Amino acid sequence: MFFELLIIFLIILVGGFIQGASGFGFGLVVMGFLPLFLTIKESTLIVVTLLLVAALSIIFKVYRSIDLKGIGILIASAMVGRVFSFFFLSTYGEMDSLKKILGFFLIGMVIFLLLQKKNTAPDQRIHPLIPISLGFSGGFIGGIFAVGGPFFVFYFLMIYLNEKHKYQANLQLMTIITSLSTITLHGINGDFNSNMMIYIFIGIIGVCIGTSLGMKWFEKLPNHLIKRLAMIIVFIAAINLIILS
């Protein structure tokens, strides 16, 4: 048990560092390993709770850069996605086959992020279907696997390409809103249990340390290096999930 908790603590620490340094990646890293010890449902609820802690610890440092203009559609769409994901996770969250599906999905996310264009001029005339589709997808996938961040990242990179702090602040705001909705829905449904509390407690310590260290590197470490490291870790974790599930 001690060795298991130590491994989980270190994984969460790394995930928190990547979240603090690049704005996302915590769910991708931790969900690649946590389902090896727990069910998808338990893993998702633990990670979403820790994501809320991570986002709160980051947003207190960048809240002045929050820009609500233009993200209302994204928020509304993400909330709809979270409601749908609640029913899906409540019904199928205990199935082991979801771990294999998550493994393939994580590999798809790695490929998607690696193929993203690095230099794209921000488009001030974004079609409403873009935030609707990205918001719903991020909300739905995030509510099931706690890895919806890349969809929000893609949108915020389009509108805040050269505004690093606005990108970070609004990304964390989305994480807080969507995480709170998932925690509230599943909390009312009685999906949290006492066995999960020790993982959450250990995780809070790890994520606070990790995000604090990550934020210190936020100003000086190139984002592409952090993201590349995260992708390597996620890819290895995805292969483990597919083989071991």
UniProtKB/TrEMBL annotation:
Record's subcellular location: Cell membrane; Membrane
Residue ranges of the TM segments: 6-38, 45-64, 70-89, 101-116, 136-161, 196-218, 225-244
Membrane topology: Multi-pass membrane protein
Keyword Ribonucleoprotein: no
Main location: membrane
InterPro entries: TM_pro_TauE-like, TSUP/Inactive_protease-like
Assigned keywords, A-Z: Cell membrane, Membrane, Transmembrane, Transmembrane helix
Any single Gene Ontology cellular-component annotation: plasma membrane
Family the UniProt entry places it in: Belongs to the 4-toluene sulfonate uptake permease (TSUP) (TC 2.A.102) family.
The name this protein goes by in its record: Probable membrane transporter protein
